[in-house]
């Protein structure tokens, strides 16, 4: 298999990280510095920074209710990272992100080989949020979110499904994933997000998970997650 796939299957590195390690000449196969095109066989010895790559960890796929203040990264150098919070025995990655101030559903896995493909596929998945704002939610704002076309850092927001649920609350379903999209759309109407919680990604629901709690995905949830990824690859 390709060296990037081999490294990602260890559960220690994501594909993005493996590319950086290889480009920095930190990966060797049988003592020889490798390239992204290198192939690994069962008889080969692979080292990163002169240390052997660990055996693959048992695969886990989790639904996690991210609390406010946690940063969606596995990098140990970042304060409030996912690994420090969860204290998982193997390195764990988030599929997609929520900003530090937002809460709600994250899909987590230690299967580095599927993180990037799932992140690409996540752009086409429905993601559902409930929002509280600092000022009353206007019908004009909801209408424009449904129509699409708002400029978010030079890119047009796609049409969304949005509905007002209270004087200062609304619900929205997005497929697009522009940076801080909901917050920026609200600011376009001189309104500001007080709280933002994601309650669904495609077929996976947050349900009754409290902030900081997690659960294993069911076999059916994992099967459908991987099927959707392969179906669109």
From TrEMBL:
Highest classification ranks of the organism: Bacteria, Bacillati, Bacillota, Bacilli, Bacillales
PROSITE patterns: PSI_RSU, S4
InterPro entries associated with the record: PsdUridine_s_RsuA/RluB/E/F_cat, PsdUridine_synth_cat_dom_sf, PsdUridine_synth_RsuA/RluA, PsdUridine_synth_RsuA/RluB/E/F, PsdUridine_synth_RsuA/RluB_CS, RsuA_PseudoU_synthase, S4_RNA-bd, S4_RNA-bd_sf
Protein family according to the UniProt entry: Belongs to the pseudouridine synthase RsuA family.
Biological source species: Jeotgalibacillus salarius
A GO molecular-function annotation: rRNA pseudouridine synthase activity
Key words of the record: Isomerase, RNA-binding
GO biological process annotation, one example: enzyme-directed rRNA pseudouridine synthesis
Protein name, per record: Pseudouridine synthase
PANTHER family, sorted: PSEUDOURIDINE SYNTHASE FAMILY PROTEIN-RELATED, RNA-BINDING S4 DOMAIN-CONTAINING PROTEIN
EC identifiers of the protein: 5.4.99.-
Domain RNA-binding S4: 1-59
Enzyme class: isomerase
KW Cytoplasm (keyword) present: no
């Amino acid at each position: 298999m390709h060296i990037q796939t081999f490294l990602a299957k260890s559960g220690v590195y994501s594909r993005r990280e493996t590319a950086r390690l290889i480009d920095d000449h930190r990966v060797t196969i049988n003592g020889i510095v490798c390239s992204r095109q290198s192939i690994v066989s069962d008889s080969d010895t692979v080292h990163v920074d002169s240390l052997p790559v660990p055996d693959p960890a048992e695969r886990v796929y989790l639904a996690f209710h991210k609390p406010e203040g946690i940063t969606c990264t596995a990098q140990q150098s970042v304060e409030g990272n996912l690994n420090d919070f969860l204290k998982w025995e193997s390195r764990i990655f988030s599929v997609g992100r929520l900003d530090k101030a937002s809460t709600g559903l994250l899909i987590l896995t230690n299967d580095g080989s599927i993180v990037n493909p799932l992140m690409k596929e996540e752009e086409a998945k429905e993601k559902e949020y409930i929002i509280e704002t600092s000022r009353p939610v206007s019908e004009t704002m909801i209408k424009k979110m449904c129509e699409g076309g708002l400029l978010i850092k030079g890119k047009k927001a796609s049409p969304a499904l949005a509905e007002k649920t209270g004087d200062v609350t609304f619900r929205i379903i997005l497929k697009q994933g522009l940076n801080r999209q909901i917050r920026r759309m609200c600011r376009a109407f001189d309104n500001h997000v007080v709280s933002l919680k994601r309650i669904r990604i495609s077929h996976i629901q947050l349900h009754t998970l409290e902030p900081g709690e997690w659960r294993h995905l069911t076999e059916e949830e994992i099967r459908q997650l991987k099927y959707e990824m392969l179906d669109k690859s």
